[in-house]
Specification:
By secondary structure, this protein is α/β, with parallel strands linked by helices. Helices cover 52% and strands 12% of the residues. It has two domains: 6-176, NAD(P)-binding Rossmann-like Domain (Rossmann fold); 180-302, 6-phosphogluconate dehydrogenase C-terminal fold (Orthogonal Bundle), CATH 1.10.3660. Helix 7 packs across helix 9 and helix 7 (178-210) crosses helix 11 (244-267). Prephenic acid binds at residues 101, 126-130, 189, 294. GO terms for molecular function: NAD+ binding; prephenate dehydrogenase (NAD+) activity; prephenate dehydrogenase (NADP+) activity.
């Protein structure tokens, strides 16, 4: 247990990320009171039952009243509506952050609604699972994972406090500018998700030809794709709609590489294939050596110690 970093923290949108933050705050004593807002009564009741919120509200405006930290944890496309609603109700001196997977679009949507005297520091924990909703969260989700903060001109002391908060949940915090964030994540997260969705879509079309063979003989590689492709449709629709430029850029590069490999296969160019796969194997090994193996679905639960 550490001393609380914020007295009152408001979670807006009570899904995987917010519920994980709530559990982590409770486990490590990072906030005195955690309030939450969800649109449905079922979700609000679950948050109280599961114990990751102390108080829940049907309106976001009520949930943020007197909060020292407000966390926007809704899909990227819902950020603007929420920011518009809470703007007039924020406490002077409070910090607003978000956990959205895209940063430039969130800044454009949220910043104009944040009054003077309130710090707005966008964020993005690089941790998740394919599950969603209030029952999917767990306290250790952020342990040993990066959390990127976008300074966005905010006061250094407010950034330092938010950094302490994320470190209290076990994350490694780094700062990055929003445009750079969106390109990096297009490479490491957004385009890989699109490829997984596509591959599972291809198999789905084939299944109509081969009936149940795809499921029956599902190999590990394909199963990994299906895990990713089971991720929340609303969240990922919003990611692609709001990180359009960067995703299309990386997708263009991906297509070029795919054509090069397709040609190597057609030409029987084994050297080209071998060299390519040798380079990609080295990348995987360097990720493991850096302690960033994100491939295991249960990484957060299975590999952390008993804390
Ligand atoms: N899932 C991941 O792997 C992951 C990782 C890092 C960041 N993120 C980002 O975190 C945010 C939340 O994702 P999540 O995985 O917790 O999703 P989730 O679907 O589990 O939770 C989002 C919740 O927001 C609610 N919601 C939607 N619109 C709302 C509105 N207008 N007002 C109030 N509530 C609303 C939904 O009902 C849902 O319960 C997204 O912006 C996402 O891009 C997700
Ligand atoms: O592990 C997973 O299921 C994830 O996809 C998590 C993941 C990722 O791509 O790494 C997904 C979206 C985020 O914004 C951050 C993390």
């Amino acid at each position: 247990m550490t001393a609380p970093i914020y007295e009152r923290v408001a979670l807006i949108g009570l899904g995987l990320i917010a519920s994980s933050m709530g559990h982590a705050m409770k486990k490590w004593g990072l906030a005195t009171t955690v309030t939450g807002h969800a649109k449905t009564e079922l979700t609000r009741t679950s948050a109280l039952e599961l114990g990751f919120c102390d108080e829940v509200f049907a309106s976001a405006a009520e949930a943020v009243r007197d909060a020292d930290l407000v966390v926007l944890a809704v899909p990227v496309g819902a950020m603007e509506g929420v920011a518009t609603e809470i703007g007039p109700h924020l406490k002077p001196g409070a910090t607003v952050t978000d956990v959205g997977s895209v940063k430039q679009a969130v800044i454009e949507a949220v910043a104009p609604n944040i009054p003077e005297g309130v710090h707005f520091i966008p964020g993005h924990p690089l941790a998740g699972t394919e599950h969603s909703g209030p029952r999917s969260g767990f306290a250790t989700l952020f342990r040993n994972r990066f959390c990127l903060l976008i300074p966005n001109g905010a006061a250094p002391e407010a950034i330092a406090r938010l950094r302490d908060y994320w470190e209290g949940m076990g994350a490694n915090v780094e700062e990055m500018d929003a445009a750079h964030h969106d390109i990096v994540l297009a490479v490491t997260s957004h385009t890989p998700h699109l490829i997984a969705y596509t591959m599972v879509g291809v198999a789905d079309h084939l299944r109509r030809v081969t009936e149940s063979e795809i499921i029956k003989y599902s190999a590990a590689g394909f199963r990994d794709f299906t895990r990713i492709a089971a991720s929340d449709p609303t969240m990922w629709r919003d990611v692609f709609l709001t990180n359009k430029e960067a995703t299309l850029d990386i997708l263009g590069r991906f297509t070029e590489e795919l054509f090069a490999l397709q040609r190597a296969i057609r030409m029987g160019d084994g050297d080209e294939l071998f060299d390519y796969f040798t380079r990609t194997r080295a990348i995987r090994r360097s990720i493991i050596e850096a302690g960033q193996d994100t491939a295991a679905p249960d990484f957060g639960r299975a590999k952390v110690d008993g804390a």
